[in-house]
Design brief:
Keywords: Cell membrane, Lipoprotein, Membrane, Palmitate, Signal. InterPro entries: Curli_assmbl/transp-comp_CsgG. By secondary structure, the chain is of the alpha+beta class. The protein has two domains: 172 residues, Rossmann fold (3-Layer(aba) Sandwich), CATH 3.40.50; 104 residues, Beta Barrel (Thrombin, subunit H). The chain has seven helices and 13 strands. The radius of gyration is 22 Å and the shape is globular.
Length: 283
């Protein structure tokens, strides 16, 4: 790559009791490490974490605290030459067990939930590039897809955290290295500037106009909003360095070169499936 951007990853928990703080701090560190691993494998970043910072700066007490002021965290990141800062707060984490009897045999089933907020900040401008919330509930059936049968709490926790880190890392890549429009041909096929493992055939993407920059009244940090959605496309072909999408709806005249394209949310995808089924019934 021509330029390897540095990302500083810092996480914290929102628990109050000492027992919960200890558990959440361990969870925060595990989530950090999984996220660092995912971002490193993308081969687009140099990733700096708390341990690296502590060795380099000697500011052990500051970095061990979960109450680090945003201003101090920004200063540390800038001093280390980081381009971006990823910060987050874990607000809910739980794993529940329940016994179920089937044909005289008692089995233990798990349910789990993980919720955390996170932000991506460009240190040069102190602009919040993206903020999001990971909020997932894993019932027994969903967990069976992640872990083997009769897995313990630790295996469930590890799988849930790995799942969360993969999802958030993919979203961070979409923010820092957003997928953009290269061109559009006369057949309403839209060419995007990324392919490979980041885009899959059948995925739905939305295309947006440039948004405005606003200031968060709570933090004083600038953040850029997406503009109006102008089109929706479905990926029909993926190559190593680009992909091709078919225009599903929207105004082709509003699709311009370098426009931002983001994966559609679950609601949009589900709505499209419903519309497709309805059209088939009419036919």
């Amino acid at each position: 790559f021509d330029h390897e951007r540095a990302v500083l990853v810092v996480g914290k928990s929102a628990s109050t009791s000492k027992q919960k703080q200890s558990s959440s701090l361990s969870l925060s560190r595990q989530l950090n490490q999984n996220l660092i691993s995912e971002l490193t494998q993308a081969r687009k970043f140099r990733v700096l974490d708390r341990e690296y910072l502590a060795e380099l700066t000697g500011e052990q007490n500051v970095l061990k605290s979960d109450d680090v002021a945003m201003e101090e965290t920004l200063r540390l990141g800038q001093n280390l030459g980081a381009d971006y800062l990823v910060v987050g707060t874990i607000t809910d984490y739980r794993i529940d067990q329940k016994s179920k009897e089937v044909l005289g045999l008692t089995t233990v089933q798990h349910e789990a939930a993980l919720v955390f907020d996170y932000r991506v900040i460009a240190l040069a401008t102190r602009e919040v590039m993206w903020s999001g919330t990971y909020n997932e509930f894993f019932n027994h059936r969903r967990l069976r897809k992640l872990v083997p049968k009769n897995s313990g709490d630790r295996q469930v926790s590890d799988a849930m955290i790995a799942h969360a880190a993969h999802g958030v890392a993919s979203e961070l890549l979409d923010v820092i290295f957003p997928i953009k429009v290269l061109s559009m041909n006369a057949d309403n096929e839209v060419y995007l500037n990324q392919g490979g493992i980041r885009v899959k055939e059948g995925e739905i993407f939305e295309i947006f106009l440039p948004g405005q920059k606003v200031v968060d009244p709570d933090t004083g940090l600038a953040m850029r909003l997406d503009g109006a959605r102008v089109a929706t496309i479905e990926i029909i072909s993926v190559r190593a360095k680009f992909s091709v999408g078919r225009l599903v709806d929207g105004d082709p005249d509003q699709i311009y070169q370098h426009a931002i394209s983001r994966r559609a949310g679950a609601a949009v995808v589900e709505s499209m499936k419903t519309d497709t089924k309805a059209k088939k019934k009419k036919v």
